[in-house]
């Protein structure tokens, strides 16, 4: 600290330490705040009017391999959700996605597919209200068909913060539906 | 003959005494810790991370002004050298 250059150097060094402490504090405090804001127990979501459609696709880009057609699934749905609690001072944007979970090929294992998603960057846009919305993605299983199994739709979310780790979660509401089957000409 | 770098460094030396160095170091630590605390509080109460960043930047500027220049307060105890014992 004896001369000017040394004082500048010590100041910059200490600033670096202070910034890392600040960053860690923000990351920790914001997750605790989210917990007390109850973002992991949002139960006002409603998913309804689910209509499943099945299609048979022959293209490789729709999962058809070795010339065997693959059953693709899509849905139409109504969705209303209020995700404003997810927006707090450390939220940059949120990613919301609608997934269907169903029993897998082996007992005890489940598969999950994403039908629809959305990136929300503003608190004003965090109230979702969709009527007869169509799935953004066609999905298919590892097997050649979904075999008309039952699935549960859930709205999941992920917070991308300014500082800190991604925060993942889902709303507590699940809506059951059955995959449609392709009507084959016989 | 001094090189140019040495003479420039001599102009920007701005030395302070030993007691002043300790004072400056303590001041630096205190200012920065206060800055971190104040910016977290500002961020939480205004609900904005931008407020936090600006508060911290302001606290850095204040710390810089308080610590880096050779203020008279850092030169209150000049080091006294031993008297010369022998005539050359």
Automatic annotation (TrEMBL), chain A:
Transmembrane intervals: 20-42
InterPro entries: SPC3
One annotated GO biological process: signal peptide processing
Keywords annotated in UniProt: Endoplasmic reticulum, Membrane, Signal-anchor, Transmembrane, Transmembrane helix
Annotated membrane topology: Single-pass type II membrane protein
GO cellular component entries: signal peptidase complex
Domain of life per record: Eukaryota
Cellular localisation: Endoplasmic reticulum membrane
Function: Essential component of the signal peptidase complex (SPC) which catalyzes the cleavage of N-terminal signal sequences from nascent proteins as they are translocated into the lumen of the endoplasmic reticulum. Essential for the SPC catalytic activity, possibly by stabilizing and positioning the active center of the complex close to the lumenal surface. Essential for viability.
Family classification: Belongs to the SPCS3 family.
Protein name: Signal peptidase subunit 3
UniProtKB/TrEMBL annotation, chain B:
Regions crossing the membrane: 27-45, 51-71
Entry protein name: Signal peptidase complex subunit 1
GO CC annotation: signal peptidase complex
Highest taxon above the source species: Eukaryota
Similarity annotation: Belongs to the SPCS1 family.
Keyword Ribonucleoprotein found: no
Membrane topology of this protein: Multi-pass membrane protein
Cellular compartment(s): Endoplasmic reticulum membrane
Entry keywords, A to Z: Endoplasmic reticulum, Membrane, Transmembrane, Transmembrane helix
Organism per entry: Australozyma saopauloensis
One Pfam family hit: SPC12
Function noted in UniProt: Component of the signal peptidase complex (SPC) which catalyzes the cleavage of N-terminal signal sequences from nascent proteins as they are translocated into the lumen of the endoplasmic reticulum. Dispensable for SPC enzymatic activity.
InterPro entries in the cross-refs: Spc1/SPCS1 (IPR009542)
One Gene Ontology biological process: protein targeting to ER
């Amino acid at each position: 600290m004896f001369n000017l250059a040394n004082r500048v150097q010590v100041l910059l060094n200490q600033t670096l330490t202070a910034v890392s402490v600040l960053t860690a504090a923000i990351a920790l405090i914001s997750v605790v705040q989210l917990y007390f804001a109850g973002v992991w127990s949002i139960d006002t979501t409603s998913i309804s009017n689910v209509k499943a459609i099945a299609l048979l696709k022959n293209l490789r880009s729709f999962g058809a391999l070795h010339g065997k057609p693959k059953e693709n699934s899509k849905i139409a749905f109504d969705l209303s959700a209020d995700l404003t609690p997810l927006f707090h001072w450390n939220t940059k944007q949120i990613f919301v996605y609608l997934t269907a979970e169903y029993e897998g090929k082996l007992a005890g294992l489940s598969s999950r597919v994403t039908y629809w998603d959305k990136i929300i960057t503003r608190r004003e846009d965090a109230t979702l209200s969709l009527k007869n919305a169509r799935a953004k993605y066609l999905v298919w299983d590892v097997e050649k068909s979904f075999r008309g199994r039952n699935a549960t739709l859930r709205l999941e979310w992920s917070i991308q913060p300014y500082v800190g780790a991604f925060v993942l979660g889902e709303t507590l509401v699940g809506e059951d539906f059955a995959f449609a089957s392709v009507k084959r000409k016989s | 003959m001094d090189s140019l770098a040495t003479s420039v460094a001599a102009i920007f030396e701005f030395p302070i005494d030993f007691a002043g160095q300790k004072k400056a170091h303590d001041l630096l630590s205190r200012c920065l810790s206060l800055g971190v605390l104040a910016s977290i509080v500002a961020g939480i109460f205004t609900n904005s991370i931008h407020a936090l960043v600006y508060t911290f930047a302001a606290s850095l500027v204040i710390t810089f002004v308080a610590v880096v220049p050779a203020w008279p307060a850092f030169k209150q105890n000049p080091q006294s050298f031993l008297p010369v014992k022998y005539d050359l």
